[in-house]
Design brief:
262 residues; alpha/beta; Metallo-beta-lactamase, Chain A; 7-stranded mixed β-sheet; 5-stranded mixed β-sheet; 9 helices; 35% helix; globular; binds zinc ion; binds fe (iii) ion
Amino acid sequence: MWSYQHAGFTVHQLSVLRDNYIYLIESHTSNALIAVDPAEAVAVRKACKVLAKPLTHIFNTHHHWDHTDGNLSLKQIFGCRIVGASHDAERIPGIDVRVSEAAPPAIAGLNVAVLSVPGHTSGHIAYLVGDALFCGDTLFGAGCGRLFEGSADQMWHSLNKIAALDGSTKIYCAHEYTLANLTFAVSIDADNRVLAERIAADHRRRRQQLPTIPSTLDSEKATNPFLRPLDSEFCRNYAALHGVAAEPAAIFADIRRRKDHF
Ligand code: ZN
Ligand code: FE
């Protein structure tokens, strides 16, 4: 378990299954202890024991099993409240609190905003807690989620919503996919010096069995191939090289297509 201090809360990171992360958000000023996307219950239960606190809430970003499989047993053990997208309520096991951008969850001691970020699934949401973004399978370290239920345009719009947040925002995504994503990134952004530095740093971290997550939004903007279309120089070069229109949404769609076949 790795822990990160924020103003008013701590984020604990649990590595589970093959490459999933579960996060525990622990308020400093209330009893709130929230599990984000509990892929399984055992690891969360153990962490609660270590923290000597009961789980009060679950935040689900989307309905996939590797984000919700712990929901029902944790609810049974702790009587915690399960929070999910109102738009997707019928697919979130055990949902108690239906939220949206206009109706974020009210959690004592924490400032929580909801972002609607469809693309990976139609009901996908992200939770912004202070300066910590829990974005599930929307934005990854140097990558983005596959388009299972959405269009490239939808995902591009969702990523733009995230990109509009403060650059220092910490990106707590749900999978450790970074090294594989970086291999793809360098294949389309070979001259990017910041990317080369990130590759060296993240390989070092993995060799030391440390997570590459959280990253920061600034780092993703500089190196993530799915956010690079925000940079007009990148777009000009990409368009010239690959013969597509120098238009960010079109370039994003082209990069997403390439990644699917990489
Ligand atoms: Zn998913
Ligand atoms: Fe997932």
